Amino acid sequence: MHIFGKILGAFFGFLFGGPFGAFFGLFLGHQFDKARRLNQAGFKTGSFGSGPSQTERQDEFFKAAFAVMGHVAKAKGQVTKEEIQLATIMMGRMNLHGEQRKAAQDAFREGKESGFPLEEVLERVRLSTGGRFDLLQFFLELQISAAFADGDVHPSERNVLHKIARSLGFSSDQLERRLRMQEAAFRFQQGGGFGGQQQGYQQSGQWQQASQASRLSDAYDVLGVSEDADAKEIKRAYRKLMNEHHPDKLMAKGLPPEMMNVAKEKSQEIQNAYDLIKKEKGFK
Predict the structure, then answer these.
(1) Is pLDDT of 90 > 90?
(2) Phi and psi at residue 201, in whole multiples of 5°?
(3) What percent of the chain is modeled with pLDDT above 70?
(4) pLDDT for position 56
(5) Are 61 and 129 in contact (CB under 8 A)?
(6) Residues 267-277: what's their mean pLDDT?
(7) Which domain holds residue 76?
(8) Which segments sit on the Cytoplasmic face (predicted)?
(9) Summary count for the chain: helices (H), strands (E)
(10) From CA 258, how far away is CA 279, in angstroms rounded?
(11) Looking at 18-22, 70-74, 191-195, which range is the least confident one?
């Protein structure tokens, strides 16, 4: 627990300025302790306006993503093997090796520690991205994916996700909408809709292939539209999502290059859902 700065600040503040000085010193000490926590967690404490390079901002985004992922995984009190596997899968999808993989593993472990400064780290994410909506949305979706590692979101994980969403500037309604979309995407992937990467319903005699109606319903949820939406509304939702998740655009705005494959997979998921709906509706 970091209180050294607060103690010193309050002491010297009271010494030179009485009760008011103590209060002001306590505030300064709190800022000092917060900076120490961030430094110990591997995050830089310089302000966004001081001009960190693109590489430094990408590095901070990368570390924060895995650290917060570890924090979400720890929300239930014990990290499950599915959540550890998810982190490993994420590292594989990003093709992380050597020092990059070690950095991701270290950040994930830091996020699981009891004193992890979640709010401070998320504030750094907002600053390092310049508050760009699509990058913050990508970050939030990574954390939602972590929560869905075992196919369900525990109430304590949901609470943490709400804290993350608020800190990144998303409302509770926006988070719940993305949770529904991710849940549908999880089922859609299991039905073979995610670029053929997962074939859960097709690989075993214990599982039957998802019905066309069920997969179609999930496809609508992936795009965030109702099943009675017309072609114009569906196309508008599709284009908006593709614009927000376009890998090249995300890279240009500061997405770490290691996460390019994840962005590509998300775009492919959106494309697959749209293609299924378009085929069913019969429009071009």
Answers:
(1) no
(2) -80, -10
(3) 74
(4) 87
(5) yes
(6) 94
(7) 54-178
(8) 31-284
(9) 12, 0
(10) 34
(11) 191-195
Residue bearing tokens 């909408």: 177
Distance CA 124, CA 28 (A): 19
Q: Which of 35-39, 182-186, 235-239, 270-274 has the lowest mean pLDDT?
A: 35-39
Q: How confident is the model over 162-190, as pLDDT tens digits?
A: 999 999 999 999 999 999 998 888 888 77
Say if residue 123's pLDDT is above 70: yes
Distance from the first to the final alpha carbon of the chain: 59
pLDDT at 54: 83
* CB 260, CB 254: distance < 8 Å: no
Please name which of 44, 39, 34 lies closest in space to residue 4, comparing C-alpha atoms: 34
Pick the more confident residue, 99 or 201.
99
Q: How many distinct structural domains can be found in the chain?
A: 1
**Cα(9)–Cα(21) distance, integer angstroms:** 9
CB 149 within 8 A of CB 179: no
Of the ranges 144-148, 203-207, 244-248, 271-275, which one carries the lowest mean pLDDT score? 203-207
103 neighbors 95 (Cβ within 8 angstroms):
no
Q: How many CB atoms lie within 10 A of CB 282?
A: 7
Give residues with Cβ within 8 angstroms of 267, minimum separation 6: 242, 245, 246, 247
Q: Is 162 part of any domain?
A: yes
* Residue 72 CA, distance from chain mean position: 10
Is position 59 within any domain?
yes
Cα–Cα dist 10/18, whole Å: 10
Residue 76 maps to a domain: yes
What are the strands, taking DSSP E only, across the chain? none
CATH number of the domain that residue 114 is part of: 1.10.3680
Measured over the CA atoms of residue 52, residue 54, residue 58 and residue 59, the dihedral's sign is: negative
- Amino acid code (one letter) for 148: F
| Number of residues in the chain | 284
| Domain assignment of residue 43, yes or no | no
